[in-house]
């Protein structure tokens, strides 16, 4: 017997989840069914794909080689099914919503990967405030959303696909600019710049929580007077009036665009991480959306999104 498409689907689910319980729930099958299918696939290929212990599941070298091509193979098959049904003549189109702190590294990586792995899917990217993303996805206008600490309704699902180190944005004239690393616990006397809470309530609350938990102080906050004017925020940092806690990718880009007037200083451990969360509707699976979700998960596990 040769491996079937079912074997590949089960393999991809387990490779992405690295947990038999979660993978089985995702596939809507019993754990024993999943386990026996993976064992059949390993026997057919003559290689071990996973290392299993009582505490964890990991990909072997053979498993890592297979997952590199598996997502694209599933996408190609699903594209063939759509074409056979008559809905594959035109390229499928998916809209992805993302918040602005997600963009600098995550969006280019995903855009390139979708062109390579899902060539028949046209993905368009729309930047919006995190507070607007849940409704955009819930309405069906957008296939998925990518945000940090989104506040979602009961009709949506949210999962963290990647985590990113954070740093401190500071004026290049500030004494901190010459530091290799800063400790949050030593910044309790500083003021931190934040966006208005209504623009990203989950992220706003998370920043306050991070400063309290990792810094050990009640933060002094300066709310940006105009979140829509990019000129005001750099001016505040440049003046030295406030510092900013920022994900490394967006913080570095922000600093680069300032022409050297703002720098990003790394944080010493222990320090909070900034997640990249995927928001989606838990509806009957659309093969194209599922292919995109698998790709996001895969890139996240490889560390290519943050």
Describe the SSE topology.
Layout: H1 5-17, H2 20-27, H3 31-45, E1 50-52, E2 57-59, H4 61-85, E3 92-98, H5 103-117, E4 121-127, H6 133-138, E5 144-147, E6 157-171, E7 181-182, E8 191-194, H7 201-215, E9 220-223, H8 232-239, E10 244-247, H9 248-257, E11 262-267, E12 273-280, H10 287-301
Helix pairs in contact: 1-2, 1-3, 1-4, 2-3, 4-10, 5-10
Question: Can you walk through the features of this model?
Answer:
The protein is α/β, with parallel strands linked by helices. The chain has helices spanning 5-17, 20-27, 31-45, 61-85, 103-117, 133-138, 201-215, 232-239, 248-257, 287-301, and strands at residues 50-52, 57-59, 92-98, 121-127, 144-147, 157-171, 181-182, 191-194, 220-223, 244-247, 262-267, 273-280. The protein has three domains: 5-85, Arc Repressor Mutant, subunit A (Orthogonal Bundle), CATH 1.10.10; 92-162 and 275-301, Periplasmic binding protein-like II (D-Maltodextrin-Binding Protein, domain 2), CATH 3.40.190.10; 163-271, 3-Layer(aba) Sandwich (D-Maltodextrin-Binding Protein, domain 2), CATH 3.40.190.10. Strand 1 and strand 2 (57-59) form a beta hairpin. The two termini are 41 Å apart. The mean pLDDT is 86.
